[in-house]
Structures are given as C-alpha cells and as structure tokens.
Design goal:
Layout (H helix, E strand, L loop, with lengths): L3 E4 L2 E4 L4 E7 L8 E7 L6 E7 L4 E3 L7 E6 L4 E6 L8 E8 L12 E2 L5 E6 L1
Parallel strand pairs: 2-11
Antiparallel strand pairs: 1-3, 3-8, 4-5, 4-9, 5-6, 7-8, 9-10, 9-11
Length: 124
C-alpha cells in the first residue's frame, strides 16, 4: 500500500498563505481520485478538495477561490496551496486516496489510506 505523508502546516495570521504537500511512497498517477481533508477539534472530518487522474478539481464551498489542489505525478506529490487563510481554516489537514476507480466525491467516506496529518493554525 502506498504511504502518504503530509507536511507544510504551521501557524499563520489571517490573510496569510501555506502550501501543504502530501508525499507518496509510490505512484499517485494510478489513483483515480485524491483529496485533501480537514478536521477541526470537535468536528467531523470534511473534504476540502479533490483532484481526478485527469486533473479535474472540485472544492468545498468555503475554500473556493482561496485554495488550489494540484498534483505532481513525476514527484508523486499532492499539493494544496492555501491563500487568504481565515481563522475558521484552523484544523488538522490530511490527504487520502479515493476508494473507487470511477468516481470522486466530496464524501469523506469515499476515501481511504489516510496520512498522519499536518496542523494548520490561523490566528485573527
């Protein structure tokens, strides 16, 4: 199984930017779907964005226009560029692979093989 390791989290002020990376131990080009997720204390994990094998992307409403998901297949890395950060973006961020070979979704239950997460803290 491919191992996923997130990095790039940290503490920033509102309006700042962070770039998260998800390094895979194997080829990510084989996955139909990969996604970024977040979980704030006391809240359920939610999908932030996903990207398909052909580069189609989709975002949860609260991050549209601020976050960009991308992937570098030769480097086997998934990236989340986060701009104009808000305090409500504070959470643990995870990457994961999609479970299915023919669909992507904004349903967290359609993903598996989670990384260990990277913490993002945004202060006002």
């Amino acid at each position: 199984q491919v191992q996923l390791v997130e990095s790039g989290g940290g503490s920033v002020q509102a309006g700042g930017s962070l770039r998260l990376s998800c390094a895979a131990s194997g080829r990510i080009s084989i996955f139909y779907c990969m996604g970024w997720f977040r979980q704030a204390p006391g809240q359920e994990r939610e999908v932030v964005a996903y990207i398909t094998d052909r580069g189609t992307t989709r975002y949860t409403e609260s991050v549209k226009g601020r976050f960009t998901i991308s992937k570098d297949n030769p480097k086997n890395t998934l990236v989340l560029q986060m701009n104009s950060l808000k305090p409500e973006d504070t959470a643990m961020y995870y990457c994961a692979q999609g479970t299915y070979d023919d669909k992507c979704s904004l349903n967290v239950h359609d993903y598996n093989n989670w990384g260990q997460g990277t913490q993002v803290a945004v202060s006002s």
